[in-house]
Specification:
This protein is α/β, with parallel strands linked by helices. 45% of the residues lie in helices and 16% in strands. A seven-stranded parallel β-sheet has the order 3-2-1-4-5-6-7, with helices on both faces. The protein binds nicotinamide-adenine-dinucleotide. The site of nicotinamide-adenine-dinucleotide has 31 residues, from helix 1 and helix 4.
């Protein structure tokens, strides 16, 4: 029960890495607001948590919409009393080669992956600063460190989120708020379903991963939990890459 009586918000928790984190948090004693643009996914995760005896609420929220984020924060406080942990996990990715990349493509990715995280932090900050305590975990990517084909907008959004993590860590340290990131490697989720539908491509990636396999959401969730727990109280501004060693080869 490493998160006993804590209240957590996990964004993009209707599937993949966010869902795994929400389920693990609840198992460790947290009350969880499960937020996603996909309400059905969020409700399924909440049902799973409740079946195991946990407490959770499902919200249909677009993280890039300030009014929706603020209402979700207010409803979480009304229901659970406070907010201790925010996991900014919601993210999108589209493969668009730079020569055909349009302004709208970049805005779309930045609005969710970067501004969405910013808006969620702004939403919970008054609560965390008042209680002089909080844990913020941003889910970035190995793509915050390396370029990828057709990935320039995604690269920029995750690079920006990594540096937002460091900047916020400095400014929020005096409020006893830890801000860290988890950077997943190649992970089997809805986001990468098409990419990994091709077995040859999977083999190509596996050959580049020292641990020899793709990741799964359950590989990422324990790192997020560690950064949300009291065990990481002297860590801030840091990114833990959970990538099977992929970045170590570069
Ligand atoms: N899968 C990978 O290989 C990988 C690698 C590195 C980083 N990541 C990051 O991990 C995070 C989780 O992705 P995943 O792989 O679990 O994919 P996923 O598609 O399973 O989960 C992402 C969730 O975010 C939700 N979402 C999308 N836009 C939203 C919005 N505007 N508001 C609220 N929710 C929204 C989706 O509905 C979905 O449930 C993302 O930030 C992604 O960039 C994934």
């Amino acid at each position: 029960m490493r998160l006993k009586d804590k209240v957590a918000i996990v964004t993009g928790a209707g599937s993949g890495i966010g869902a795994a984190a929400a389920v693990l948090f609840a198992k460790e004693g947290a009350k969880v607001s499960v937020l996603d643009i996909n309400l059905k996914g969020a409700e399924e995760v909440v049902n799973q948590i409740k079946k195991s005896g946990g407490q959770a609420l499902a919200f249909k929220v677009d993280v890039s919409k300030e009014d929706q984020v603020d209402k979700m924060v207010a409803d979480t406080v009304k229901e659970f009393g406070t907010i201790d942990i925010l996991v900014n996990n919601a993210g999108i990715n589209e493969f668009v080669p730079f020569p055909v990349l349009q302004v709208e493509d970049v805005k779309k990715v930045m609005n969710v992956n970067f501004m969405g995280a910013f808006l969620c932090v702004k939403g919970v900050l008054p609560i965390m600063t008042e209680k002089m305590s909080g844990k913020i975990i941003n889910v970035t990517s190995i793509m915050s460190m390396i370029g990828g084909k057709g990935q320039s907008a995604y690269n920029a959004s995750k690079g920006a989120l990594k540096m937002l993590t460091q900047g916020m860590a400095v400014d929020l340290a005096s409020y006893n708020i830890n801000v860290n990131a988890v950077g997943p490697g190649m992970t089997r989720t809805g986001l990468t379903k098409n990419l990994f539908a091709n077995e040859d491509r999977v083999k190509w990636f596996e050959a580049k991963i020292p641990l020899g396999r793709l990741g799964v959401p359950e590989d990422m969730a324990p790192a997020i939990l560690f950064l949300a727990s009291g065990e990481s109280s002297y860590i801030t501004g840091e990114t833990i890459f959970v990538d099977g060693g992929m970045l170590a080869t570069r």
